[in-house]
Design brief:
The chain is built from twelve helices and four strands, in the order H-H-H-H-H-E-E-E-H-H-H-H-E-H-H-H. It is mostly helical and 326 residues long.
Length: 326
């Protein structure tokens, strides 16, 4: 057991070094600095998708993660633009705001069984978009633009994080932050899954009646999982708003919510790293089919359906057979 854990830690460190050192060196050599934005987007989308994966882990279908990404983006932008709050402080605040909203939404419906939760989340993204259009604080359809780049962080004269506006290539800085956030997200997810709470959550997925009969508070666990899921969505949305320096009601739509769900299916619902791999394949797969023109959506949908039929446990089942939540 210790050997397996040590091997995983070594592989995690190697992958992190490749992402933080190897990838920037390759991009610098190629001169394709635009790739930083692409890879940063993939990292953030995988974080948001990881939140959806958590709700699947307790046996609930979540089709509303785009709502919390949109909420998080607006919360961060409003705090930065209207109140001068540091962007770095708005990240956890955006996540906490979304977690609080999810608890209010989840308290009445997560006690119910069946498709009620999926039905509510299906309309949640559109409701959030309409609220963003209607509320004065969100500036309606005009959105919030010209969001300043993150400021630096210094302690006792020591600069921990530089002011992004002074950097020659802020995209590289955003990429590094996004990769570190992604690493922390999936490390935390792995730890959660292998904790007592994670084992109880898995029992809900397998048999709710049996779990309830042994004293498991089903509603309580569902609410916790949904709050964590929404927290990740809010943090990811806040980062997106900062990178693009703008946020609009259409920044995250129902289509995005569906894609977050597909990322989990494609990578593998039984694997912690499923959302990460699924996001990578879905994002770049769509771009690779751009050359097919009007047939892009048809080919993409056909391939996606075929993969799900052939590999119902996701792409990771090819390399990790039988190792659920690995």
């Amino acid at each position: 057991m210790k050997t397996a854990t040590s091997t995983r830690i070594i592989w995690a460190v190697v992958v992190l070094l490749v992402l933080l050192v190897g990838v920037p060196l390759l991009i610098s050599a190629s001169g394709r600095t635009d790739l930083y934005y692409t890879l940063t987007s993939v990292a953030l989308l995988s974080i948001i998708s990881a939140g959806v994966w958590i709700t699947f882990y307790i046996g609930c279908i979540n089709i509303g993660q785009g709502a919390y990404a949109l909420m998080g983006g607006y919360v961060s932008a409003i705090l930065v633009m209207n109140y001068g709050v540091s962007f770095w402080l708005t990240l956890p605040l955006a996540g906490l705001f979304c977690a609080g909203a999810s608890v209010l939404i989840g308290l009445p419906i997560l006690r119910l069984r069946g498709v009620y939760f999926a039905m509510v989340t299906l309309v949640l993204t559109e409701v959030t978009r309409l609220l963003a259009l209607a509320l004065p604080v969100t500036n309606g359809a005009k959105g919030i633009v010209s969001i300043p780049l993150p400021t630096g962080i210094s302690i006792f004269g020591l600069t921990l994080v530089p002011d992004f506006a002074t950097l020659a290539n802020p995209r590289l800085a955003f990429y590094i932050v996004a990769v570190l956030m992604m690493a922390l997200c999936f490390l935390g997810l792995y730890r959660l899954v292998h904790s007592r709470i994670g084992q109880l959550c898995q029992s809900l997925q397998q048999n709710e009646e049996l779990a309830s009969s042994i004293g498991v508070d089903i509603a309580y666990l569902r609410i916790i999982a949904y709050a964590i899921s929404s927290f990740l969505g809010g943090v990811g949305g806040a980062m997106f708003a900062s990178i693009s320096q703008s946020i609009y009601p259409s920044s995250f739509t129902v289509t995005d919510s569906i894609n977050f769900m597909l990322n989990c299916f494609l990578g593998g619902l039984g694997y912690v790293l499923g959302p990460m791999l699924g996001t990578f394949v879905l994002y770049f797969g769509w771009d690779m089919l751009f050359q097919t023109g009007e047939y892009q959506l048809l080919i993409f949908s056909t391939v996606l359906i075929a993969l799900m039929l052939v590999l119902p446990n996701g792409l990771l089942s090819l390399t990790l057979p039988g190792k659920r939540s690995a």
